[in-house]
Specification:
There is one protein chain. With 293 residues, the protein is an alpha+beta fold. It has one domain. It is 30% helix and 19% strand. The protein is built from 9 helices and 14 strands. A 6-stranded mixed β-sheet has the order 5-4-3-9-11-14, with helices on both faces. The longest helix is centred in the first third of the chain and has 16 residues. The chain is globular.
């Protein structure tokens, strides 16, 4: 498997010099997104995700039907396993932002993919998270929302996965639609850390990928989605329950508006708003039973 790391620092520096040569002005002084600010106030809020146990009957069926065990790293390191999951998921189908599966469970998604269907970013994230949970890695689907989430008519959101990696004791963002895991000095990043490093000129930001992506284009594109961050507490894929009934946690930048509508027409219901990173990124103790049902 061919793997590569694309360094954001070198790309930014080269573009910076080019822009100085062309017009004497700094390209990045006007194009870098604004750093987000977060609160230290916990407001007596905490939560624990509920996830499928890897030995649940449906998870076993999903694992065996799709040979998920083969994605486990030969070195038995969790980060290596995540890289394999992301690459494998990316290669399953071509992105189609307008097509949805008949059911959002991972078994149905991949069965319909085998019949020639192509799906959205949502389905890539579900397969990554479900595959990780199958292999004993805590994982969640993470919705990214633009600042204009309430007023934009289209394309106000993107969906990725975040997986808990014990070696780094942290959540790690994985975007299988484009086969990307962001890193900083070799350390994988969660979505909020990714946004923070995009805002830093000279940051040694890297994109781990095994695919032919254009890093500058991807970073420019993803930046606008890294403003609001939302997860559901119940991260089980089997059995499916009503999406409307699931309690949501939304991370909102300090002082920012708390959105209640998605793309003008879709209410954001059953949502708890937080601005504290420690609440949104709960640590997971190895072999902790509370996180997995």
């Amino acid at each position: 498997m061919m793997e590569k790391l694309v360094t954001f620092k070198n790309i930014k520096y080269a573009l910076f010099l080019l822009m100085i040569c062309l017009n004497g002005c700094s390209f990045f002084s006007s194009s870098l997104p604004t750093p987000l600010q977060w609160s230290t106030n916990r407001d007596n809020i905490s939560f624990s995700h509920v996830m499928n146990n890897q030995n649940d009957s449906e998870m076993v069926l999903f694992r065996t039907e799709n040979s998920i065990d083969e994605l486990r790293s030969k070195d038995n390191d969790n980060y290596g396993t995540l890289k394999n999951i992301v690459k494998w998921t990316h290669d399953q189908w071509l992105h189609n932002g307008k097509q949805e599966p008949t059911s959002s469970d991972p078994l149905t998604i991949l069965r319909e993919v085998s019949e020639g269907q192509n799906f959205r970013c949502v389905e890539y994230a579900i397969i990554v998270a479900a595959s990780a949970q199958c292999l004993g890695l805590p994982a969640r689907v993470l919705s990214l929302r633009r600042k204009d989430v309430e007023t934009a008519k289209y394309n106000a959101g993107h969906v990725v996965a975040e997986v808990w990696i014990d070696e780094f004791e942290k959540w790690v963002m994985a975007d299988a639609q484009v086969d990307v895991i962001p890193e900083m000095d070799g350390i994988p990043l969660n979505a909020v850390e990714f946004q923070a490093n995009i805002t830093k000129f000279g940051s040694n930001l890297q994109l781990h990928t095994s695919s032919n992506i254009r890093p500058r284009k991807y970073i420019n594109w993803i930046s606008s989605y890294l403003y609001y961050f939302q997860v559901v507490v119940d991260q089980r894929f089997f059995p499916l329950s009503s999406k409307q009934a699931k309690e949501k946690i939304m991370l909102v930048p300090k002082g920012a508006k708390r959105p209640t509508i998605f793309q003008r027409d879709y209410p954001i219901e059953n949502c708890i708003y937080v601005s504290n990173l420690e609440i949104f990124y709960p640590p997971i103790i190895a072999n902790e039973d509370k996180m997995v049902e």
